[in-house]
Amino acid sequence: MPTRRVSLLAAVAVLLASAPAYGGISFQQEREIGRRFDMMVRRKLPLVDDPEFVAYVEGIGQKIVSQLDGFAYDYKFSVVRDHSINAFAVPGGYVYVNLGLLENAANDDEIAAVLGHEIAHVHAHHMARQQEKSQIVSYASLLAMLAAIAQPALAPLAQAAGQAMHLSYQREFEQEADYLGVRYLRKTRYDPRAMLDFFKTLEE
Q1: Active-site annotation holds for 109
Q2: How do residues 25-37 score in pLDDT, each as one tens digit?
Q3: Between residues 150 and 63, the one the model is more confident about
Q4: Which domain holds residue 150?
Q5: Per the structure, how many domains does the chain have?
Q6: Whether 49 is catalytic
Q7: How far is the CA of 74 from the CAs of 40, 60, 77, 84, 88, in angstroms?
Q8: Which of 108, 178, 191, 197 is catalytic?
């Protein structure tokens, strides 16, 4: 495990040293970071492999992605076999939804609201933009975040990943993700009010 974690961090360090786009991170680097993260998730997390179940989430997600303006990634959606209510996304177009979120969502609109919010974080390059804007997400903090995610002793991987990604965003980027998510819902004819409805479910 320590060797695997060191290898991951070394790879990310090399990626971050390449040509910049936003905040020192290029689109290609975002893709590669996401790809490596996804490989780690598939080794460490129990994923739902029921084709019908995965196709359901993929269908909603891709419907939203189809409305993006000039999207740079091939978005991939996975369902984590975890009954807590959570979802998270990482740079490069990788979106993960916990089984618990699907179990507690009242309808397709609420699932689309969550996916829209997560897709917005990726599509708007929030992690890289925040680094460029304020240096809060520095190279060191990004490496530390990935180290924490790669160490199961610190927390269950899904929970650690979701918290790390969300807590790293400034409020303005969370608000932008909400705004963009609502816009995506309108374009795909899902009910935008579902975002507020699901936030109420999370508070409860």
Answers
A1: no
A2: 778 878 887 888 8
A3: 63
A4: 2-203
A5: 1
A6: no
A7: 18, 15, 10, 27, 16
A8: 178
